[in-house]
Amino acid sequence: MSFCLLTVHCQDVIQDPTISWSFKSKSAEMKCSHKNLITHTQMYWYRQRPGETMTLIVYTAFGGQPDYGENLQSKYSAVKDSIEAGALTVKDLQPDDSGIYFFLCSDSYPAYFGEGTKLTVLDGVDVTAPTVKILRPSPLECRDQKKKEGKRRKTLVCVASGFYPDHVTVFWQLNGQNITDGVATDAAAKRNEITGLYSITSRLRLQAKTWFNPDNEFSCYVTFFNGTYTNYSTSIYSWWMGSGTLFKYSLTSIYIGETFF
C-alpha cells in the first residue's frame, strides 16, 4: 500500500489509550474517534517501531472492507463501525509489536493524526518502578565558569534508573512549582542489555544565585505507568551535603491520591 497525504495533528482526533502494555500471545486494542470531521470517513493505522519510520498497517473506510496490504489479517483486526470512531486490535503479541501506533483520519486534504498509542509487549522482565536521585552540580563546572564572563550557571542532574517498561516522563519543580526553562531530558530511556531495565536522565541548568539560595528546594519527578500513573520524586537543597540527595523521598499515586513517606 502506498499513500501520500498532507497530515496535521488535530485536537479533535482522540486515541485511547495513550499508553498500553500486555504480555506475549495476548491481544491489545486501541480506539480512535474524531469530531467535527464528519466528511473524514477513511481510517489509517500506522506503526512506528523504535528507531524506524512509520509503516502503514491497514486502511479502511466506513462501509468498506479493511485493506491490510501485505500484513496478515490474522495479526490485525480493524473495524470502523461509524464515521466518527474505529479501533485496531493487534493479536498474538510479540516483542517486535512494541512501538507507537498512530491513527489517521482522512477524506480529502488535510488528513489528521491522533497523538499515538505507545504499546509495549512485556518480554519476561518484571514490571519495576524507578529509583530517582538528583546529582549536585560538579565542582569543576563552578570552577571553570569563574574564568568566563557572564552569569555563572549550575547544572543539576536527575537520574531515574532500574525501571521497566520504559513508560516514564520527567519534570522538575522549584519550590513546588513546575519549571521548564533550562531543562533538557533524554529523548528516550536507555536499556541495560544485561538486566533489561531502563534508565533516563534529565538536566536542569540554572543561575548560580538560584542554586545557592538556601530557601530553594529542587525536586525531580518521574511519572511511571504500570497500569496507573505514579509519581516518584526526590528533592535537594544547596546546603544539603549528604550522599547527593536529601533524605526526603515521596511516592504519589495520581489516580488514588495518596502520599507515602
From the N-terminal CA to the C-terminal CA, the straight-line distance is: 55 Å
CATH architectural grouping of the largest domain? Sandwich
Helix- and strand-based class? mainly beta
Low-confidence stretches: 1-10, 243-261
Shape: elongated
Largest sheet: 7 strands, mixed
Fourth-tier CATH superfamily name of the largest domain: Immunoglobulins
> How many separate domains?
2
Mind telling me the C-alpha Rg? Answer: 23 Å
Residue share in helices? under 10%
Structure commentary:
The protein is mostly beta strands. It has 2 domains: 116 residues, Immunoglobulin-like; 130 residues, Sandwich (Immunoglobulin-like). The protein is built from 2 helices and 22 strands. The strands form 4 sheets. Strands 1, 3, 5, 6, 9, 10 and 11 form a 7-stranded mixed sheet that branches. Strands 15-14-19-20-21-22 form a 6-stranded antiparallel sheet, with no helix packed on it. A hairpin with a 3-residue loop joins strand 19 and strand 20. Keywords: Adaptive immunity, Disulfide bond, Glycoprotein, Immunity, Immunoglobulin domain, Membrane, Signal, Transmembrane, Transmembrane helix. It is a single-pass type I membrane protein.
Keywords:
Immunoglobulin-like; six-stranded antiparallel sheet; disordered C terminus
